[in-house]
Structure formats: structure tokens, C-alpha cells
Design goal:
Structural class: alpha/beta
Strand order of the largest sheet: 1-2-3-4-5-8-9-10
Largest sheet: 8 strands, parallel, barrel
Strand content: 15-25%
Distance between the termini: 28 Å
Number of helices: 11
Helix content: 40-55%
């Protein structure tokens, strides 16, 4: 899926919500544990209940890899279910990969070809030759970690480097790489005051924004500085939606939480598009 198609879905659904499928077996409803594949059953229920309220789903691969082969199979089933039943959804493998060129090429093949994700998150620390193998895939998006929401992000990302803070250098340098038009960037919602500067660097690039809800990010603050002509934002929410309830009606409660966020987004979009 291209970002043009993503913008079209955002305008159609009046939502730029991404739902993170970070499945912790210790948190899902207990009655699901009786299934052979409780992870997939949980994901399927969440997807069926919320697909009309969001434009993207983002499984964090660590939650699946931690369960061994059964977890990886659940990830495969989840992405296959999305692609077959809700192909309009933008899919993100939150894998944070990045290695020397030939290894990155194998990571890219795994997520783009074998699993058929639309995008994958990538760490930029090793530079151009570790990222360009991902960018080489046509109609696939590479989401580069730029300014993250975790506490330790200030250890490196906001340190001065060549008259710029390091995250600024990462963004500016990445724009010179081959197929840079296939880049999106991760920018944490807890970094709301930085969005104005980031928009100066990449006025139209899509930004994947985690940290709304449980992590304390403010949706309106992010949108005030982060929205672009093509909308340009994907706001991720995970725990506050998928773990809204641990009862038998958990999917309905997840739908209600997603609807609250989507309703806010609809009002924000209406105001943004009228300006």
C-alpha cells in the first residue's frame, strides 16, 4: 500500500488510528487460553471489532517471537487474516530491524515478501547500507526510528551532532538515500514540542506516532504541529484499546475505546481540512 492510498483510507474512515497488536498472554481474557492459538483468536476478535475505526494495525513482533514457533505462526495467521479480509488496512511489522546490507535484505524479504506486511520499523544506527535494502521494495514502506517516546531516547537522539540534534541528522541524512520516498518516521507522542521542527525537515512524510494514551501523549498537541496536507500522521494506541477489558465482551470494549479516539480524530480532521 502506498501513502497515497493510506491518505485515501484516512479520509474515508475519518480516522488516522493505528492499533497495536501487542499480545501478552498474561493480559488477554482467560477464556481465550483454552484455544489452540489463543493469540490469533484474540487478534481476530480485536480486528473484527475495530477495523472500521482504524486504518492500520501494528503487531510488535517481540510479543510473538517470545512465544517461539507458535507465536510466529500466530503472527503469520494474523497478517494473512488481515490481508485476506481487510486488505484496505495498512500493516506494520514493528520489528525495529537494521543490520549490514545482506542481513537487512533478508529481514526485508521476511516481512515484505514472506509475511506480506506493508511496512516495517527499522533502526537507523548502522546507516545507509543497512536501510536501503528495505527501501528497494516497491510499494513497501520503511518506518525509520527518529525520535522515540521512551525515557532513554535522550541518551542519544537529542544530543547535539554537527550543529543539529542527532534525530535531526538522522532525518536529514535519510532523505538523501536511494528510494527515500518510501520512508516514514517514528516520532513519539510524548515529544509533542518537537513536531514543528520535524515538519520543517519532512513537511509531507508520514509519521508513526506511538505514546498516545497509556504513555501520556496528547493527541491534540501532536495534531496541532504534526498534521500535513496529506494528513501525514498515524497515531498508534495499543494497551488502552486491546486491554480495555479482560471479560468475555472484551472485543466490544475495545471497539468502544477505539471509537472514542476515532471520534476525536474526526473532529480534528474536520477542522484541519476546513483551514
Amino acid at each position: 500500500m502506498t501513502t497515497t492510498e493510506l491518505t485515501r483510507q484516512i479520509l474515508k474512515k475519518k480516522s488516522f488510528l493505528c492499533i497495536g497488536l501487542d499480545v501478552d498472554l498474561g493480559k488477554i481474557p482467560k477464556h481465550l487460553l483454552q484455544h489452540d492459538d489463543s493469540i490469533f483468536e484474540f487478534n481476530k476478535a480485536i480486528i473484527d471489532a475495530t477495523h472500521h475505526l482504524c486504518v492500520a494495525y501494528k503487531p510488535n513482533t517481540a510479543f510473538y517471537e517470545a512465544q517461539g514457533i507458535k507465536g510466529w505462526q500466530a503472527l503469520q495467521k494474523t497478517i494473512s487474516y488481515l490481508n485476506n479480509n481487510y486488505p484496505e488496512q495498512f500493516t506494520i511489522a514493528d520489528a525495529k530491524r537494521g543490520d549490514i546490507g545482506n542481513t537487512s535484505a533478508m529481514y526485508a524479504k521476511a516481512f515484505f515478501e514472506d509475511l506480506s506486511f506493508d511496512s516495517v520499523t527499522v533502526a537507523p544506527y548502522m546507516g545507509k547500507d543497512s536501510v536501503e535494502p528495505f527501501l528497494a521494495f516497491e510499494n513497501k514502506i520503511t518506518i525509520l526510528l527518529a525520535l522515540t517516546s521512551n525515557e532513554g531516547s535522550t541518551d542519544f537522539q537529542t544530543k547535539n551532532s554537527d550543529k543539529n540534534q542527532l534525530y535531526q541528522t538522522v532525518i536529514k541524512t535519510s532523505q538523501t538515500w536511494k528510494n527515500a520516498q518510501n520512508l516514514m518516521y517514528v516520532v513519539g507522542a510524548t515529544k509533542g514540542s518537537y513536531f514543528s521542527k520535524i515538519r520543517q525537515l519532512v513537511p509531507e512524510s508520514f509519521l508513526l506516532v506511538p505514546g498516545i494514551g497509556a504513555q501520556g501523549g496528547d493527541l491534540n498537541e501532536v495534531c496541532k504541529q504534526g498534521l500535513s496536507k496529506n494528513i501525514g500522521l498515524l497515531i498508534n494506541s495499543s494497551r488502552s484499546i486491546i486491554y480495555a477489558s479482560d471479560g468475555t465482551d472484551f472485543a466490544n470494549d475495545a471497539r468502544n475505546e477505539a471509537h472514542k479516539i476515532q471520534s476525536e480524530m474526526e473532529l480534528i480532521l474536520k477542522k484541519h481540512l476546513s483551514n
